[in-house]
């Protein structure tokens, strides 16, 4: 081969070695494992802060739905009776007894949840055992449609449903004297009715239903243990002193 031919036809570069599919899979698996471990450690590191923020938000909500409250105690039902919850416990059913500056019981905050239009709606409502009525309402979690379903948090007329919603017990104390029912906008005539929001009927009915289901269960428990709740703050103070 002449020098001219050598210049005109340079040698072709060698092809890079092929990477086996097994090696690629192992590399991707390793990256996935490392990412998973990092996510777990990140979650564990932020969990105490998340839990603290949730507890603080819940406490603010309790004082919002029970006007005049400045302190609270958490109770849980056990064999039909309420007992104080130890700080190390995490019961699935809680009732938050709220007291004023003098230690007097001014209401109980109750959590409730139910299916809405888009997802599960979680709320907190305040109960006054004297009038046997709901006196406050706050949405804890919702994914309802912006501008429609989310009015359950902002519509003054709807929120007003829960300023004195009748949830009094029947004569035998076993259930509600009148179930909480839905009323169309402008047609509420009874204190146990929840007046809906125009354009958000499904969400309004969801709130009415979850309040009714919760009250049917909770009111009898609370009234049957009302003295335990009234004495709870005093008992807790004595325990702390001991």
Describe this structure in words.
The protein is of the alpha+beta class and 242 residues long. It has one domain. The chain has helices at residues 3-8, 21-65, 151-154, 156-159, 201-224, 226-241, and strands spanning 71-78, 81-84, 95-99, 105-115, 120-128, 133-141, 165-166, 181-183, 193-195. The chain has a seven-stranded antiparallel beta sheet with strand order 2-1-3-4-5-6-7, with helices on both faces. The protein has a two-stranded parallel sheet with strand order 8-9.
What amount of the residues lies in strands? 15-25%
Structural class, judged by helices and strands? alpha+beta
The share of residues in helices is 40-55%
Outline = elongated
Tally of separate domains: 1
What is the β-strand count? Answer: 9
How many helices? The count is 6
Described by strand count, sense and barrel closure, the largest sheet is: 7 strands, antiparallel
Specify Rg, calculated over alpha carbons. 30 Å
> How confident is the prediction overall: mean pLDDT?
86
Strand order of the largest sheet: 2-1-3-4-5-6-7
Q: What series of H and E elements makes up the topology? A: HHEEEEEEHHEEEHH
Low-confidence stretches: 237-242
Distance between the termini: 106 Å
